[in-house]
Write a structure and sequence with these properties.
The protein is mainly alpha-helical and about 180 residues long. It has helices at about 5-25, 30-70, 80-120, 120-135, 155-180.
């Protein structure tokens, strides 16, 4: 099913505002994500009826389910988590998975640039080793590598997800223009 222009525009608008607020304040507020979720469901209902509602709810639920473990481990903020659910409500499950995978790469590039800029390569390598040991021993990595550590470098994931949504929309529009 093709992604309707109005729904894609809504996802982009939500992503841009969320990315901007995350960049400025390192928070994505509920006043943005909760209405974003409802607008995504409503827009899909208006365009595609009950099948749109179903796709929207599955997309939102999938976004929330996939990122919940990262919120519980304190490696992702709750605003980022809710943003993924709201974006999922707009784009549905298949596109959401592509956007989440893409946002991992965008966040990785952002993290690498931040590590190089802050000259924290050695500390980052130690942290990665700590996380890998935690995975092998089936233990939580501890507060040294969570959002709770004030010394930790933090990539605003909302910015990465927003950039991915905007990039996806630009590619989508470009393809439509090319085929016209």
């Amino acid at each position: 099913m093709p992604l309707k222009a109005a729904i894609l525009a809504g996802a982009v608008a939500l992503a841009l505002v969320a990315g901007w607020t995350d960049l400025r304040s390192r928070r994505i507020p509920n006043w943005l994500t909760v209405p974003g979720l409802l607008v995504g469901i409503t827009a899909n209902a208006a365009v595609s009826g009950w099948s749109g509602v179903k796709a929207s709810l599955i997309g939102a639920g999938l976004g929330l389910a996939l990122l919940l473990p990262f919120v519980l481990l304190r490696s992702l903020g709750a605003g980022d988590w809710k943003l993924a659910g709201a974006i999922g409500a707009f784009v549905g499950q298949e596109r959401l998975i592509a956007l989440l995978v893409g946002s991992i790469f965008v966040a990785g590039v952002m993290a690498l640039l931040l590590i190089l800029y802050k000259r924290r390569l050695r500390q980052t390598a130690r942290n990665i080793g700590h996380i890998l040991i935690s995975l092998v021993t089936f233990r939580l990595p501890g507060s040294a590598v969570t959002l709770d550590n004030p010394e930790a470098l933090k990539v605003p994931y909302g910015v990465a997800l927003a950039a991915t949504v905007v990039l996806y929309a630009a590619i989508h529009v470009w393809k439509l223009v090319q085929h016209a």
